[in-house]
Specification:
Number of helices: 6
Number of domains: 1
Order of helices and strands: HHHHHH
Shape: flat
Radius of gyration: 19 Å
């Protein structure tokens, strides 16, 4: 199917498959966010290669099911060129300070684990 509306309205596709596509879409949005964060990182000497890698990966997660396999293959080849040419590098995202970590722990604590064990 080439139309996302047809995909999500189709009765032939199970709800679990539709929910999985929503999850892939969210993963794609996260990787697109990572791509643009890498592009904005002035200290990363390999920011353009990192951007291309993460952007193409996110693009495939977001629009992958609705583009022809040939285009997905082309995007995949373009995506892996950055790591092959050693143009993907670690950015300089600062780690939170001990004070910030302690403040957030006091604010949130272990609440998300309590839901799991109840």
């Amino acid at each position: 199917m080439t139309n996302p509306i047809e995909y999500f309205m189709s009765v032939d596709i199970t709800m679990s498959d539709k929910l999985l596509e929503v999850l892939y879409f969210v993963i794609g949005l996260v990787t697109l966010y990572v791509a643009f964060r890498n592009l904005q990182d002035k200290e990363n000497k390999k920011r353009y290669g990192s951007f291309i890698f993460w952007f193409l990966l996110g693009l495939m997660f977001v629009i992958g099911p609705w583009i022809p396999p040939l285009y997905t293959g082309i995007l995949m080849v373009l995506m892996v060129l950055s790591p092959i040419l050693k143009q993907v590098g670690v950015g300089s995202e600062p780690a939170p300070s001990n004070e910030e970590t302690e403040k957030n722990y006091k604010k949130i604590g272990m609440k998300f684990l309590y839901l799991h064990y109840q």
